[in-house]
Every structure is written in C-alpha cells, then in structure tokens.
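Example 3.2
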Amino acid sequence: MKIIIYGAGFIGTHLEKNLAADHEVVLLKTNITSKEDIERDVENFGAQVIVNCAGKTGKPNIDWCEDHKKETLDSNVLGPIVLSDISQAKGIRLIHVSSGCIYQGDNGGKGFSELDAPNFCGSFYSRTKIWAEEYLVSNPHSCILRLRMPITAYPNPKNFITKIVGYEKVISVENSVTIIEDLFRVIRVAIEKNLSGVYNVTNPYPITHKEILDMYKEIVDPSFTYNIMSLEELKKYAKAPRSNCVLNTDKLSQVIQLDDSRVALRKVLEEYKLHFKEMQGKKEGINDSCFCG
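Structure, written as tokens:
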C-alpha cells in the first residue's frame, strides 16, 4: 500500500516508521492548504491512502491557538478540507487524526459516543476540530480517529506524561487517554479494512491525573512529588477553558480490542522508566527526535 503521511510532528514521525515495516510510506511537510501541492504529491507518489497527522495544538498548550487563530484555522480546518476534497475526487482513503476535545463530562457515566453531538466549544482549538469533522464526515472515503491526551513511552513535549510531570500543579479529573502505539494499531486496521466514519480511539475506561501521577511515582521516579489544584484554580493560569471528558469506545471494540487504560499505562511507564535519565533536565524542551527513540 502506498501511503502519504502529512504532519512531521509528534505522531507523524513515529507513524512513518511504524507503517514502513510493510507499506510504502512517505512523510511530507507540504502545506496542506495548497490544493495544487497536495494533488502533485498524490499523483507523483501514486498514493492510495492519505493519513493526516498535521494540525496545530499550540506550544506549550492550546492557549497558543487563542492568539494564533489564522494559523490554527488553516492547519486544523482548511487543510483537512483540501485533503478531503482530493480524497473524494480521486477515490482514495483519508485517515484524519482528530481529537476528543469536543466534549465535556462523562455523559452520565456512559461516555460520549461517535453519535453524540459535541458539547464543548470553550476553546478555539476545540471549535476548529468540530468544524473539520463536520465537513469530513460527509466524505465516504474518510475515517476520522479521535484521540485524547496522547501517551507514549518516549519523552516529548506532546506526550501527556511528559507534560503533567513538568507542571507545578495539576488538576485531577477523570479523562479518556490514548496510548499512541495503540493508535497506530487502529490506523493499520483502518487501512486494512477500509474503515470509514468516526471512531473514538482511546483505551477503555477513564483514568484520573492523580492515578497517572501515582503510577509514575511508583514505576519511574519514587522521589517525584506533585500538587493537586481545583478546576477553579486552573482558570487563573489558562486563557481558554479545557476539555475534560470520557469517550465511549464500544464502536472501536467491534473492530479491535485495546488494553484498558490502567493496564496499558503500566506497560508504557515500565518502558518510560528506561528513558528516565534522558528525560531529566529536558522537560521544557525535548525535541521530536526523542519520540522516535
């Protein structure tokens, strides 16, 4: 299978290596808002699948998007629209890595399914993810994969583990999380089975920030300490409200079984421990090469 990956960042760089084991893959930094450039890429490579990992999440966090709306809109909405139009016109698969940050809460304990309308528009980042999905869902060749709080064994500023262990204070709210290696498994299934529509790609069962940090302290760094703050206190530090939500994974479980969040996290932290020395002193600026090992 010939696959183009757009977005040479946290997810895209590692995904290229993962898929290259048994597919013909190219990772490109093309401006995805340029229809002419994307069409040229697809034609020159003979692409059968496009995986869109490009998108603005902000540095160091989504507050950046509040002050950079044009860049965020281009990357998160206009780019996906261009990719979707080309996908539909040429009849090739589009796998779009999206976000579950379009919900708030746990939907009465059920979690939000793919059929539930978004209920969180508090940040510009979240609104752009909603707008993109509203457009892409009409494309029968598209598969939208929503992830939440991405976690991997490698230190990286976009890795949720690296993020929260670097904060002086953290909230502790129940959330769904995505183990990146499991996301890659889902992408492989999406390619092999020609999946279309929307899928919540999170590990079953939500977990709190406190549980994650306690497990980190147990497995990685016994000397680690942290302080919990309330959601009200968070408002003093955050420009935009944050999504805290639980996604329902019943639909995903029909095509692939993933470890629950606690089992998966323990496995990841055991490996993360091996990179602990590398991580020390780099919490504020680890570059993407660390993620690729």
